[in-house]
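User: For my dataset I need records formatted as: sequence, then structure tokens, nothing else. Please produce one.
Assistant:
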Amino acid sequence: MSAVTAATDQSFAAAVLQSEQLVLVDYWADWCAPCRQLAPVVEALAVEYGDRAKFVKVDAQNNTLVPATYNVANLPTVQLFRRGQIVASLSGQVTRAKLRQMLDQEL
């Protein structure tokens, strides 16, 4: 079972915006090679951070409303939400070190 939850346009509010936890959202598409490279990194971090943060992925190709709402122009994009607000964002070549730094700053 994956430690990363998949969210859709319909489930995003419940999964991310209403969460009491810090939430990392990974926007991806199956045609995006950097997204496929990032996926196992996000999965490993989800296991590593356990209950300290929630990890969610959004397929930006099949769910276009949420990425448009949060100005996701490039893939991959990773956004960190706290109490329904974006507190950090990275896009393009996202490394494990950058993700850890972003998470650790907010935890």
